[in-house]
TrEMBL record:
Its cofactor is Mg(2+). Pfam families: C-C_Bond_Lyase. This is Citrate lyase beta chain. It comes from Rhodococcus aetherivorans. Its EC number is 4.1.3.6. It is an enzyme of class 4 (lyase). Keywords: Lyase, Magnesium, Metal-binding. The lineage of its organism: Bacteria, Bacillati, Actinomycetota, Actinomycetes, Mycobacteriales. PANTHER family: CITRATE LYASE SUBUNIT BETA, LYASE BETA SUBUNIT, PUTATIVE (AFU_ORTHOLOGUE AFUA_4G13030)-RELATED. It comes from the Bacteria.
Amino acid sequence: MRTMHHFHHMDRATRDTLFLHPPQAFSDADERDRLAVALGATLYVPATRADLTATIARRAREGVASMVIDLEDAVADHEVEDGLRNAVATLDELAGTAAATMLLFVRVRTPDGVDRIADILGPGVTALTGFVLPKFTAASGPAFLDAVAAASERLGKHLYAMPVLESAELVHRQTRDGELQQIAALLAGHRDRVLAVRIGATDMCGTFGIRRDRDLTIYDVRVVVDVIADVVNYLGRTDGTGFVITGPVWEYFADHERMFRPMLRATPFAEHDAVMFRQQLVSRDLDGLLREIALDRANGIQGKTVIHPSHVAAVHALSAVTHEEYHDAVDILGGDAGGVQASGYRNKMNERRPHRTWAQQTLLRASVFGVTNKGVTFVDLLTALVDR
């Protein structure tokens, strides 16, 4: 089984400078929860791209670890058939290459799309990790999940499903609880098949005719953040009944005239002699993305859908576990008798029982994204990752 690891495109000297414990290898044969965390920034690419194989290979070399070949919203209705054949041809061409170590998915439109791909896919099965299931509901979900299970059996490989929650039934307050209860029961019956649950905030906003501004995060859009909170409450529990929930897409990547102040404090960049770098991040709208990633994590969400390669570095830089987080986690897991003790950094209290699950999740994330050296921050990681 060929493996990959995050930050592999950094040179060895840079990795040694940045990491106390470098990221460990992973593959689609890993334990499900670890693999879900390893997704990181999942980059979408239209299935109709003429240079699709070369694009995926290039992104793999640049540090992208998971990609979705998109046959849904990114493809016009009359191009779906061509896109499907191009997706299959690309997977077949990638088989046996270094890019095949990525976590590669196809976002289909209907369960029939899963069947069609399974029927004509050749050696590309070795490159395929699974399928993204759009507009997933309690009504549409069973057919999707059955199709993925049938494709797995037909192709002789365990293929994962990643449902996207974005439907009106979920968004509308009067139907949300019932819909989430049914989805939770449905996914529980396919637990080994569901890698992660993805949040489709763009479609949620569309239900109300909203398009959030680049000066705001999704957490400023109240009708959507209420849905996200309920999704995490029903499906993101850490008692063995939940799943990894991934963050919604950040849509912006170009310069614009700003209405509000930037979301990045200047102090961390001044301390690292990177003030000009901060200005470049702000000019690319990456300050809003960084803010949203931090809020994703605070709300129990891991990883993120991205639609531009420049967003990958931001997601991965904030996914690495800091020296402080790591040592807090190790201290918390050092005993099971409960109690409280001061952090080794002398800036907080660590309570062994309430913080135990956090610590376990932190060490799981550390295994795939690494642990930074003392004093290394996201500024250092971004500086090393972003082409300036």
